[in-house]
Amino acid sequence: MTTTRTQVCIIGGGPSGLLLSQILHRAGIDTLVLERQSRAYVLGRIRAGVLEGGTMQMLRDAGVGARMDTEGFLHDGTYVATRNRGFRVDFDALIGRQVMVYGQTEVTKDLYAARDAMDGRIVDEAADVAIQDAAGTPHVTYRRDGTEHRVDCDWIAGCDGFHGLSRQTIPADVLRTVERVYPFGWLGVLSRTAPAAPELIYANHDRGFALASMRNESLSRYYIQAPVDDPLEKWTDDAFWDELRRRLPSDVADAMETGPTIEKSLAPLRSFVAEPMRWNRLFLVGDAAHIVPPTGAKGLNLAVSDVHYLSDALIRHYGGDDEGIDSYSERALARVWKATRFSWWFTTLMHRFPEDGAFGQRMKQAEIDYLESSRAAQTVMAENYVGLPF
């Protein structure tokens, strides 16, 4: 077995783990990142594409915002629709802030490039990763190319996602979890077509939710609410486009470009929060601690806010101040719960639930009508969508 030493061992080479490594490295703190998948696999994952203002600034401050600022698309607002007609919520006019459309895959590319440029230590295809003695003298073991390895460290950051080992390491009598599994999924497609609109469209409809999104001026991302157990082969391209057009505002549906899809998937939706987010020398970050439905575009942004609190805590720790370490879980969870509330509210408002009936659907339409007519209601939505302060 080979043994190496680092100050912070980061499990998970997605954007949260890479960003944490980048920030700490720039502050003079040594890190090592362990990722069980190959780099090509990580970069091939299709994920979120809307960045909050705080996320944008975190990436810039970490030295990885240049390509985002050049190639990303700033959006001043978004559209909300019901009964095949929509209206715009103007973030810039309401609160003077914006969001950025820039895919998570592109963020990950930028972070890998930055870590490579700084000779950051990233071990891809690390198998059988195990956390050892997180309550005492922490270390992590893994296997690669037939060789066993050990990493001695001061702290372990679990950035390994919902199905990772980090959360499972916390004893059952310590960990508390709450969950809401939604009774539908999102059928999503990627197509080389011009976006249906210059900004995102969130549509409520009697037949279910729809979202028109984009990656760039010639690559579109669309979703419709569908039974989570639907076979993908049921949804031919023609069937998908027909159903999407039924749910979007009529003027958009009539003019939108369609074509062959290049990726199609059906994802379940859930709200999930685990507490606490720190156990002794182990921290949970991002999806390892919480999952939100994608309706409010909060998943990646919440992971970045966790990185904000944890990087601040570790930098202060190595400067002699442990207050950030002791308060990490409380500070991170305070923001997590607010974002979970917003994602739950927006999901509930825009989707059709089995128990809704005619009354429930009319109440949602009435609330969307109120949102259209109330600057106060739009301001609340804008503040939450663009991102609450850290």
The pLDDT mean sits at 96
DSSP helix fraction: 25-40%
CATH topology of the largest domain, what is it called? FAD/NAD(P)-binding domain
Strand arrangement across the biggest beta sheet: 7-6-15-16-17-14-18-21
Write down how many β-strands occur, each being a DSSP E stretch of 2 or more residues: 21
- Categorize the overall geometry: globular
Pairing-aware structural class of the strands and helices?
Answer: alpha/beta
Tally of domains? 2
- The CATH level-2 architecture of the largest domain is identified as 3-Layer(bba) Sandwich
> Roughly how many Å apart are the termini?
42 Å
Description of the structure:
This protein has 13 helices and 21 strands. It is α/β, with parallel strands linked by helices. The chain has two domains: 2-73 and 99-178 and 270-346, FAD/NAD(P)-binding domain; 182-268 and 351-386, D-Amino Acid Oxidase, subunit A, domain 2 (D-Amino Acid Oxidase, Chain A, domain 2), CATH 3.30.9. The strands form four sheets. Strands 7-6-15-16-17-14-18-21 form an eight-stranded mixed beta sheet. The chain has a six-stranded mixed beta sheet with strand order 9-3-2-13-20-19, with helices on one face. Strands 1-12-11-10 form a four-stranded mixed beta sheet, with no helix packed on it. Strand 16 (210-216) and strand 17 (219-226) form a beta hairpin. Helix 12 (357-373) crosses helix 13.
